[in-house]
Amino acid sequence: MKNESWLLDQFVSDERLGIDLPRLSVPWEQCSPERQAAVIARWEIIRGQIPDVILRTEAVIRAKQGALYEEEDFEAACRLNGEIAELASRINDLQIWYRTQQDMEDETKRHS
Length: 112
Prior knowledge:
The chain has helices at residues 2-9, 33-47, 50-70, 74-98, 100-111; strands at residues 11-14, 19-22. The protein has 112 residues and is mainly alpha-helical. It has a two-stranded antiparallel ribbon with strand order 1-2. The protein starts with a helix and ends with a helix. The relative contact order is 0.15.
């Protein structure tokens, strides 16, 4: 139970991205191989959700682009454009986090 509690404490919810992100309480190199493996396993579960989050975000972008196409009010169009840019930024950040798995595994292999 102590290890499970420790593992859950190594992740925090990121409301902007809609996923939990790793926030290790100690440097990666100081984690035992067992704890590193547990973090990687938990991250793999979270990481598997990222493509679905991206797809949902892309659907929102498409809807906002449709509204932008129809919008005649300049201020409203600017607001929509800003919202689309923020959503695109989220997708970019999610894609970066999606690639993080490989980096964590490579780091673990170097220290094994």
